[in-house]
Amino acid sequence: MALKNRPVPREPLPDADVHSEGFRQTREARRSALVEDYVELIADLIEDGNEARQVDIAARLGVAQPTVAKMLTRLCADGLVSRKPYRGVFLTEAGRKVAEESRIRHQTVEAFLRSLGVSVETARIDAEGIEHHVSAETLEAFRKAMTAR
Predict the structure, then answer these.
(1) With the CA atoms of 84, 88, 92 and 93 taken in that order, what torsion angle do they form, in degrees rounded to the nearest 10?
(2) CB-count burial class (<10 Å; 0-12, 13-18, 19+) for 58
(3) Among 53, 84, 99, 123, who pairs with 113 as Cys (CB 3.0-4.6 Å)?
(4) Cα 77 to Cα 82: distance, rounded to the nearest angstrom
């Protein structure tokens, strides 16, 4: 059997408190991922054309406009975006901060994957998921690994 097909020996289970912390962080990352995706996309649309419209957000995320409308209501309530009648969606200062942090995480993960030889398209797609689950410690390790090359 080839080395890559051998099962990796399983480590013993960690202490219950340590183990549950990993699951808690994963649940939190899932909850914040959608918010971060919306806010980052809104920032990108604003930078690209000075306006983020509900129809454009729906098209880029591949969801229906009512889904976007529901999320925009949540983002307004959370103080991350503001809406103006007959205009687009705008980020608040808090929204800009979330978007920038998300963008930096995404760019770091994508660059790290590319440094491993992952194709541009696959790195972009994979970074969309990984960016929400990666810790600050891991991001720093990615940066160090890239600068060491």
Answers:
(1) -140
(2) middle
(3) 123
(4) 9
**pTM recorded for the entire structure:** 0.76
Predicted confidence (pLDDT) per residue in 67-110, tens digit: 999 999 999 999 999 998 888 899 999 999 999 999 999 999 99
Low-confidence ranges of the chain (pLDDT < 70): 1-4, 18, 21-23, 26, 29-30
As a whole number of angstroms, the distance between CA 114 and CA 118 comes to 5
What is the rounded CA–CA span in Å between residue 113 and residue 120?
9
CB 130 within 8 A of CB 122: no
Question: How far apart (Å, rounded) are the C-alpha atoms in residues 35 and 55?
Answer: 17
